[in-house]
Design brief:
It is a single chain. Helix 1 (12-23) crosses helix 6 and helix 3 packs parallel to helix 4 (95-121). By secondary structure, the chain is an alpha/beta fold. It is globular, with a radius of gyration of 16 Å. It has helices at residues 12-23, 38-43, 58-67, 95-121, 146-165, 194-207; strands at residues 3-7, 27-32, 48-52, 75-78, 127-131, 172-177, 216-218. The protein has a 7-stranded parallel beta sheet, sandwiched between helices. It has one domain: NAD(P)-binding Rossmann-like Domain (Rossmann fold, 3-Layer(aba) Sandwich), CATH 3.40.50.720. Strand 6, helix 6 and strand 7 form a beta-alpha-beta unit. 39% of the residues lie in helices and 15% in strands. It is built from 6 helices and 7 strands; from the N terminus they run E-H-E-H-E-H-E-H-E-H-E-H-E. The relative contact order is 0.14. The structure holds NADP nicotinamide-adenine-dinucleotide phosphate. NADP nicotinamide-adenine-dinucleotide phosphate binds at residues 8, 10-14, 33-34, 53-56, 79-83, 104, 131, 133, 178, 180-181, 183-186, 190.
Length: 226
């Protein structure tokens, strides 16, 4: 069975990825800061492993890499992210808010990707996906979200870098735009349910080839310019 690795899968978009891959019969490896609720965990298939992962604590990433040593990962979805105090005007954005956004949304996925490289290399699909946002695009005209937008734009650039660095072994490095999805991050407001968004994103992942590497892909299968 193919295997998928997902961060931030205890709720929202990550939980829906876990559900859909599990329903499709995949081996599912979860990396969560807050453990998945027992009822959600029980609703997944038999082949599910959950590790403790805190994007702000490198030791948790190192521990996961150690435990997964030698195990192929076909698809990794680095989904965990934050959007703290999105409405702050520029004069109130602090270095602390900025640092937390950059560490969680940009550095932590890059660091984890590097640790999982050996697992992806021996996987069949070789897909390394990071959940980004339309907010990272220069076409986005909604104001504020300063730290979040910077962190996701940097994430896109890091993934493009990886697509160049890891081209030789066939890595498919995708950044994903989920759309505006009804999760805790959006106050459960939005245009899409997690199920609708993740169904579209899974199609993108499933059909991706090395030619698609390094681009930002929408849930609707469209490339998003950034
Ligand atoms: N919802 C949208 O409309 C939308 C749009 C564009 C992009 N996105 C992106 O989609 C991804 C998932 O967001 P969501 O909408 O599902 O939001 P969510 O319900 O708020 O889920 C966020 C997830 O990230 C985890 N997380 C946050 N900080 C973490 C840390 N330090 N270490 C480990 N895990 C951490 C959370 O875990 P805890 O429960 O432990 O906090 C939770 O599992 C994010 O990257 C977000 O930026 C969402």
């Amino acid at each position: 069975m193919p295997s998928v690795f997902i961060t931030g899968a205890n709720r929202g978009i990550g939980l829906e990825f876990a559900r859909q891959y599990s329903n499709a019969g995949w081996q599912v490896v979860l990396a969560n800061r807050t453990p998945m609720a027992p009822k959600d965990f029980a609703s997944l298939g038999m082949d599910v492993t959950e590790f403790h992962y805190d994007a702000m604590d490198d030791a948790t990433a190192a521990d996961i890499a150690k435990r997964l040593k030698g195990r192929p990962i076909d698809v990794a979805i680095l989904n965990a992210g934050i959007d703290d105090q999105p409405d702050l005007p520029p004069e109130l954005v602090t270095a602390e808010i900025w640092e937390r956004a950059m560490l969680t949304n940009t550095f932590a996925p890059l660091h984890l990707a590097a640790l999982l490289e050996p697992n992806l290399r021996i996987g069949q699909h070789k897909v390394l996906a990071a959940v980004s946002s339309l907010a990272a695009s220069s076409t986005y005209t909604v104001p504020r979200q300063f730290a979040y937008r910077a962190s996701k734009a940097s994430l896109n650039q890091m993934w493009r870098n990886l697509s160049v660095d890891w081209k030789d072994w066939g890595a498919i490095c995708l950044t994903l735009r989920p759309g505006r999805v009804k999760t805790r991050m959006t106050g459960f407001e939005g245009d899409l349910t997690p199920s609708e968004s993740v169904s579209g994103l899974r199609r993108v992942i499933e059909t991706a080839t090395p030619a698609e590497s390094g681009k930002l892909w929408g849930y609707d299968g469209q490339v998003v310019p950034w």
